[in-house]
Amino acid sequence: MSLTNTFEELHHKYQPMVIQLCLGFVKGEMDMAKDLSQDIFINVWNALGRFESKSSYKTWIYRISINTCLLHIRNAKKTISVSLDKVNLAEENSNETDQNFATLYQAIGKLNEVDRLIIMLVLDELSYDEIAEIMGINPTNLRVKIHRIKKKLKELLQDERA
Amino acid sequence: MKELENLKNKWQSGRKDLPTMPINSHELIKIAAQKKKSSILAHYGTITVLSITLVVLILFFIYVAPFQKSLSHIGIALMAGGLAIRIIVEAFSLAKAQKVLLEQTTIENTEHRIRFYNFRKQIHSTFTVIIFALYIIGFYLLTPEFSQNIEFNWMIIMDGSFVLIMIVLIYIIRKSTKDELQQLKDLAELNENLKGT
Prior knowledge:
heterodimer
């Protein structure tokens, strides 16, 4: 299979996964999430020739996505802080289901950047081993971390609903 | 526990309703090629400009103003040498930057970037100072022979503009150094977050 075909397949298969990760990362701001997703897939295309099948495509794309998100936040810290206000505005005009998501994205957005990314991997039902493989974090540390993040997210969601 | 399961379900059901990206994979490949082109231009731009400056400088001293005195020859060597060192350092820095791969694990990628910015910090604190010193000393070593061939007023304009250019350059370099040091600080914080519990 040619690189172009592989890329087309990966783009089709993993686009929702990447957009949702970006959406959670930029606190629900759709335009920003789409731009970030575009950057991620450009990076996926640029790296595709180096893919060595040492991991699954999913894990590999997650690595690129997370590193791109972290790079993006350092390059555009100011822009991202604006996005939360946009979410608040969007929330006022949306239906109940969208509001539920906005609450979730807002609560996730209040976590620090690393915790934000880890909890999204957990919500995507990745195993602890897979998350450790993506982030390079020691599995024991990761377990403690996830336990703490879950607790914090619960508190944040309660605050959001209050 | 139950709440987390609910969140997982909500997260996964939300994925079905997500809009798709406005562009398809073929358009993405085209954008990637364009971005690569402009990124190559940006990366090699500095090296190209510095190399052209070096060549023009050498040609100027050979054909336009062939200096005779040894002191001037030392001055030319220092100026050209400073520029040559800068070109080598830039090329080395570029090669190092290209080794930072996005498909690495988050910790590997962060540590790789930290090593890169530490290298840049070293460049700014030692190499840049040495290169500036070489260039400034080299320029002023040319002054005695220059003054024999051009009028005093022109000498003042030349020296004055040289000082002005140096001030502007120092300001630009200081600003970019500050940005890079901030990047290093952010990365160190990120690394701590990743490794801590």
